[in-house]
Design a protein that fits this description.
The complex is a heterodimer. By secondary structure, chain A is mainly alpha-helical. Chain A is built from 15 helices and 2 strands. Chain A has one domain.
C-alpha cells in the first residue's frame, strides 16, 4: 500500500508544473555553477601555483646562509579545492594568505582578485542552491499535501477506505522526497560531469566520498522542509493559508535568522578597535623598552654594535630583550586573532537556530572549506614554523663558531654570528604543504550538526504525525 | 468604477490571512531587528567620535608642522540611515591618511576590522522589505485575476459595462492601497524607534532621505505586485499562478542578486592585487633609496637634539643654524623625488581601483534585471552607503589633503621656516650654541632641555582647515535617478504586459 501511495505521489509530482519548473531551474543553476567553478578553479590554480613556486624559489635563495633562512618571511596561500564546488564557505572573503617568519605570524590577509566594492554575495555553489532554492521547492512540493487533497475532496475518499493515516503520511513523505530528489540528483550529476570532464579539476577518491556525503546531508536537510510543509499542511484547511505560513517561516529560517547572526556577533563579543589595538601594542613595546633600559634583561640589552666584541654588546641580554619583544607581539596578535574568530563563531552559533546555517556549517566541515579551514591553515602554519625553527636550531648546533642565539633582530644576529652562516641543503629544509583534514576528522566536526538536522527531521515528523492523526478530513 | 472595484477588493484583502500574517510579521520583525541595528550604529558612532577626538588631540599636541603630516587622519562618519541599507559601508575603509607622502585612495577595510564576519550576511531593514513585503505583494497579486476567474466573479464583473482596463486599474490600485498599510506601519516603527533613541540625531536631510526611501519602497512593492499581476493574467488557475509567481520570485529575489556579482567576476575578472602591491612596495623601496641618496649628497652639517614624545610625534628639539640649513636643503632636494614617487604610485594604484569600480558597475547593471536589486541599489544610494558615497569621501579627503598641504606651505614659507621641523627659537639656538662651545655643563644643559620640553607650546591651529564630510542629498538623488527610472520602467512594463494579457483573457 505504501508503495502504491508513493508511486501515486511521484507520478502526480512528475506531471505537475512545479516539478517541471524545479527541474529546469535546478539543472540550469547546477550547470552554471559547474561551468563557472571550472573557469574560476583554473584561474585560482594558476595563481596558487605561481605564488607557491615563487615562495619556494625565494626560500631556496635564502638557503645560502642559515641565518638568512631564519629571517626569511614566507607567504602561505590557501590551495584551491574541488570541494568548493559544493561549499565555497565564503572563502572568497576570508583571509587567504599568511605572511610570516619563525618569530611572528602576521594576521592572515585577504589578497587576490576579490573586489571589496561589490556587495557581498553568496557563491552559487551546491549549498546555496540546495539551502535556498531546493528548500523553497520542498515547501512548494508539500504545502498542499493534506490541505490541497482536503479541498479537492480526495483525502476523504482515501481515508474512507482501509488506508491507515500513518501510511498516507509516509507515502506522501517518500513520494515528495523522491520527486525532489530527481532534480537534485540531476543537477548534482550534471555538475559532477562538468568538473570530471574538464580535465582541470583534479578530483581524488576521497573527494568523491565527500561529494556523496554532502549529497546525503543535502537530502537530510531537504527532508526537514518536506516534513515542515506536511506539518503546516496538516494544521490548516486551506492551501493558501498553508503556503503563506510556510513562506514566512522559510523567509525567517533561511534568510533572516542567518543574517541576524552578524548583529549578535558584534554585540555579544567585543573586539578592540584599531586604535585601541595599536595603543596596546605601543604600550607593550614601550614597557619592554623601559624594562630594557632598567636592566631587566641584563646590561645593554638595547645596544647593537656591528662589532661583536664591542664592549657595549651583550648578546645574551639582547637575545632576552628581542625574544620578549617577539613573544609579546605574537601573544597580542594571537589574542586579537582568537577574539575575531570568537566573534564570528558567536554570530554563526546564534544563526544555527536555522537549519540552513547548520547545513552550511556541516557541509563546510565535510568539504574542509570555510572558516574552519582558515583556522586549520593558521594552526598548520604555526606548526610548520615550529618545525622550521627546530630545524634551524638543530643545524646551528653543529656550528662551533655560532653563538647559538636565535632572536628577532636580523642585524644583530648577522653581525654577531649569533646563528650559523653556513649554507643548508634546500632539499632538507622543511617546506609547507597544506594538509587536508582526514575524512574521519571532517565527519567528527560535522557529527553534531548532522545530529541536529536529524532531530529537526524527527521533530517535524512527530509533529506531522500527531497533527495528521487528528486532522479533520471533511 | 475603478474606485468601487478597488474598495471592494481592499476590504476583502484586509480580511485575508495572508495580509494579516504578512503585516504582523513585517512589523514585528522590524521592531525586533531595529534595536540591534541601532546598537550597531551606536558602536560605530562611538568609534568614529573617539577616532575624531583622538585626531583632534593629536593636532592640538603638535609642536611642529611636520607632526601634522605624520599623524593626521580623517574619518567617514557612520550614517544613521544605514539601518535601512548597510550597502558596502563595512567593506570599505572608513579613514584616510592625510600626509605629504601619498594621495588618499579608496581601500578595503583594514585587516584589524574582523574579516571573519564575512561568513555572516549583513542585515538591514531593506532586506526585510525585499523578502517579506515582496513575498506578500506576489502572493496578493498572483490570484488577483486568476483567483477571481476561478471563483466565477470575474465573468460577472466583465459581463456588465465595466471596461477591462478599469478592472485592471482597480486591481493595481487596491494592491497599492493594501500594501501601503504594512509598509507604512513598518516605516512608522522605524521612525519612532530611531527618534526615541538617544544616539540618533536627525537633520533635515535625513528626514528628506527617509521620505525618498519610503517612496522608493512603495515603487518597489508596486513593481513586484505588477509582476505578480502579469503572471495572474497569463494563467487560468490560481494554483498555477501561485507556482509560476513563486518561481519568478525566488529567481528575482534570491538568484539574480547573487548572480550579478558572480557573473560580473567572470565576465570582467580582475588582475590579482598582490602583484600591484608588490610593485608599489618595490617602488617605495626604490624611492626610499633615491631619497636617501639625494639626502646624502648634502652632507650633514651642524648639531641637533631629537626628541620623541610618542611614536609619531618626534621633532628636533634644539639645533644650530647649520643644521637648519642642512635640513631645509635636504628637504628641498628630496621633495621632487617625493612628488615623482607619489605620481608613480598614483599611476599604478588608481587604474587598478578604476577596474574595481568598472566591475562593480557591471554587477549593478547585470542585476538590474531584478526589481529587488534595483531597490537595493536605490536604498543604499539614498542611505549614502554605496560605492559612490565611499568614493565621495575619498575625494573630499584628497581635497582636504591639498588644503592641509597648502596651509603648511603657507605657514612655513614652502617648508623653509624652522617651525616646519623644530620649535627651536633663536634664543634656544643661542643657548644650544653655548652648550656646544663648552660654556654650559652637561647637567645644566639637561636641566634646560627638560625645562624647554615642559614649557613647549603647541601650534596655534585655529585657522587649520577642518575636514567636513556631510552627505550631499542632491548628488545622492541624482545618482539614484537611474534606479528610480528602472523601477518606474518595471512598473510601466509589467502593467503594459498585464494589460495586453488581460485584454485577451478568457474570463469564463
Amino acid at each position: 500500500m505504501i508503495r502504491d501511495l508513493v508511486r501515486k505521489e511521484v507520478l502526480a509530482s512528475l506531471l505537475s508544473l512545479r516539478f517541471t519548473l524545479a527541474l529546469l531551474l535546478t539543472i540550469s543553476l547546477f550547470s552554471i555553477s559547474g561551468f563557472v567553478f571550472v573557469a574560476r578553479y583554473r584561474q585560482q590554480s594558476e595563481d596558487y601555483w605561481k605564488q607557491t613556486n615563487e615562495n619556494l624559489s625565494k626560500l631556496s635563495d635564502n638557503t645560502g646562509q642559515l641565518n638568512k633562512l631564519a629571517f626569511h618571511r614566507q607567504k602561505f596561500w590557501r590551495k584551491p579545492k574541488p570541494l568548493t564546488l559544493c561549499a565555497e564557505g565564503f572563502e572568497r572573503y576570508l583571509p587567504n594568505m599568511i605572511h610570516s617568519d619563525i618569530f611572528i605570524i602576521r594576521p592572515p590577509n585577504t589578497v587576490g582578485r576579490d573586489n571589496f566594492l561589490l556587495r557581498r554575495f553568496n557563491d552559487i555553489d551546491w549549498v546555496f542552491i540546495i539551502s535556498v532554492l531546493l528548500s523553497f521547492l520542498a515547501l512548494l512540493f508539500t504545502y498542499d499535501s493534506f490541505s490541497g487533497e482536503k479541498e479537492a475532496g480526495t483525502l476523504r475518499l482515501m481515508l474512507s477506505g482501509s488506508v491507515p493515516r500513518y501510511r498516507i503520511l509516509i507515502g506522501k513523505y517518500l513520494g515528495a522526497l523522491i520527486a525532489l530528489a530527481i532534480p537534485l540528483l540531476a543537477g548534482v550529476l550534471i555538475s559532477l560531469i562538468i568538473i570530471a570532464t574538464s580535465k582541470i579539476v583534479d578530483v581524488g577518491p576521497a573527494d568523491w566520498l565527500r561529494f556523496i556525503e554532502i549529497l546525503l546531508l543535502s537530502i537530510l536537510y531537504l527532508s526537514i522542509f518536506l516534513l515542515l510543509g506536511m506539518f503546516v499542511s496538516s494544521r490548516v484547511s486551506h492551501s493558501v493559508s498553508s503556503i503563506v505560513i510556510l513562506l514566512l517561516i522559510w523567509a525567517g529560517l533561511v534568510v533572516l535568522v542567518p543574517s541576524f547572526g552578524s548583529i549578535v556577533a558584534e554585540t555579544s563579543v567585543k573586539i578592540p578597535s584599531v586604535a585601541e589595538f595599536r595603543n596596546r601594542m605601543v604600550e607593550t613595546i614601550g614597557q619592554i623598552d623601559r624594562d630594557a633600559q632598567a636592566g631587566k634583561f641584563g646590561k645593554n640589552a638595547y645596544e647593537v654594535h656591528e662589532d661583536r666584541n664591542h664592549p657595549s654588546n651583550n648578546p645574551p641580554a639582547a637575545a632576552r630583550y628581542w625574544n620578549t619583544w617577539s613573544a609579546s607581539l605574537k601573544k597580542l596578535r594571537e589574542e586579537r586573532y582568537n577574539q575575531m574568530l570568537a566573534q564570528a563563531n558567536a554570530g554563526r552559533n546564534f544563526a544555527c537556530i536555522s537549519p540552513a546555517m547548520i547545513y552550511q556549517r556541516a557541509s563546510e566541515a565535510i568539504a574542509g572549506t570555510g572558516i574552519q579551514r582558515c583556522t586549520g591553515l593558521y594552526k598548520q602554519v604555526k606548526r610548520y614554523h615550529e618545525n622550521l625553527k627546530q630545524y634551524i636550531l638543530d643545524k646551528d648546533a653543529g656550528d662551533p663558531n655560532s653563538l647559538h642565539m636565535l632572536f628577532n633582530c636580523d642585524f644583530a644576529v648577522e653581525s654577531w654570528g649569533a646563528i650559523s652562516k653556513r649554507p643548508v641543503d634546500f632539499s632538507t629544509v622543511p617546506k609547507f604543504q597544506e594538509r587536508d583534514p582526514k575524512f574521519s576528522e571532517s565527519l567528527q566536526l560535522a557529527i553534531w550538526d548532522i545530529g541536529v538536522l536529524l532531530l529537526w527531521n524527527l521533530g517535524f515528523l512527530a509533529a506531522s504525525w500527531v497533527s495528521f492523526m487528528k486532522y479533520d478530513v471533511r | 468604477m475603478i474606485w468601487k472595484i478597488a474598495k471592494k477588493d481592499l476590504l476583502l484583502n484586509l480580511m485575508t490571512f495572508k495580509f494579516a500574517a504578512g503585516t504582523i510579521v513585517c512589523v514585528v520583525l522590524t521592531a525586533v531587528l531595529l534595536p540591534g541595528l541601532i546598537n550597531d550604529y551606536r558602536l560605530r558612532l562611538n568609534g568614529y567620535n573617539s577616532n575624531v577626538a583622538g585626531d583632534e588631540a593629536e593636532l592640538r599636541a603638535a609642536k611642529v608642522y611636520n607632526n601634522i603630516t605624520a599623524s593626521h587622519r580623517v574619518y567617514r562618519p557612520p550614517t544613521v540611515l544605514s539601518v535601512f541599507s548597510k550597502g558596502i559601508e563595512n567593506q570599505v575603509g572608513d579613514s584616510a591618511k592625510i600626509d605629504k607622502w601619498g594621495i588618499p585612495e579608496i581601500n578595503a577595510s583594514s585587516v584589524a576590522v574582523n574579516p571573519y564576519l564575512a561568513i555572516l550576511r549583513n542585515l538591514d531593514i531593506s532586506l526585510l522589505y525585499q523578502i517579506v513585503l515582496s513575498l506578500l505583494a506576489f502572493l496578493m497579486a498572483c490570484d488577483a485575476i486568476s483567483g477571481e476567474r476561478a471563483m466565477g466573479t470575474l465573468m460577472l464583473i466583465t459581463s456588465g459595462t465595466v471596461a477591462r482596463h478599469e478592472v485592471l486599474l482597480g486591481k493595481v490600485l487596491v494592491g497599492l492601497m493594501t500594501l501601503i498599510v504594512p509598509l507604512t506601519l513598518a516605516f512608522l516603527v522605524v521612525v519612532l524607534m530611531l527618534s526615541l533613541s538617544p544616539v540618533v540625531d536627525f537633520g533635515v536631510s535625513d528626514w528628506a532621505r527617509m521620505g525618498l526611501m519610503y517612496l522608493a519602497s512603495m515603487l518597489f512593492i508596486l513593481a513586484v505586485y505588477n509582476g505578480g499581476m502579469v503572471v495572474s493574467c497569463l494563467t487560468r488557475h490560481p494554483a498555477t499562478s501561485l507556482m509560476l509567481g513563486l518561481f519568478f520570485w525566488i529567481v528575482l529575489a534570491m538568484i539574480v542578486p547573487n548572480a550579478g556579482g558572480y557573473l560580473a567576476a567572470q565576465f570582467r575578472p580582475l588582475e590579482p592585487s598582490e602583484p600591484i602591491y608588490a610593485k608599489l612596495s618595490d617602488l617605495e623601496r626604490e624611492y626610499f633609496f633615491k631619497g636617501a641618496e639625494a639626502g646624502d649628497r648634502i652632507p650633514p652639517e651642524g648639531h641637533h637634539v631629537e626628541h620623541r614624545e610618542k611614536m609619531l610625534r618626534r621633532y628636533t628639539l634644539v639645533c644650530d643654524e647649520k643644521w637648519i640649513e642642512t635640513v631645509v636643503k635636504r628637504h628641498a632636494a628630496s621633495r621632487p623625488i617625493e612628488m615623482e614617487r607619489i605620481a608613480k604610485v598614483w599611476q599604478i594604484e588608481h587604474p587598478y581601483i578604476e577596474t574595481l569600480f568598472q566591475q562593480e558597475r557591471l554587477a549593478a547593471n547585470l542585476s538590474r534585471v531584478s526589481p529587488v536589486c534595483v531597490y537595493e541599489n536605490l536604498m543604499s544610494a539614498l542611505a549614502g552607503t554605496d560605492a559612490a558615497s565611499c568614493r565621495n569621501f575619498v575625494e573630499r579627503a584628497r581635497a582636504h589633503r591639498n588644503e592641509v598641504l597648502d596651509y603648511i606651505r603657507d605657514k612655513t614659507n614652502n617648508y623653509t621656516l624652522p617651525l616646519f621641523f623644530t620649535p627651536c627659537t633663536e634664543a634656544d639656538r643661542a643657548q644650544y650654541q653655548q652648550y656646544l662651545d663648552g660654556k654650559m655643563s652637561e647637567e645644566d644643559f639637561q636641566k634646560w632641555k627638560e625645562k624647554k620640553i615642559a614649557q613647549l607650546q603647541s601650534l596655534d591651529l585655529q585657522d587649520f582647515p577642518r575636514f567636513i564630510c556631510k552627505g550631499d542629498i542632491l548628488s545622492d538623488v541624482r545618482r539614484s535617478i537611474v534606479d528610480t527610472s528602472a523601477l518606474v520602467f518595471a512598473n510601466v512594463l509589467f502593467f503594459a504586459l498585464s494589460f495586453a494579457a488581460f485584454m485577451r483573457y478568457d474570463v469564463r
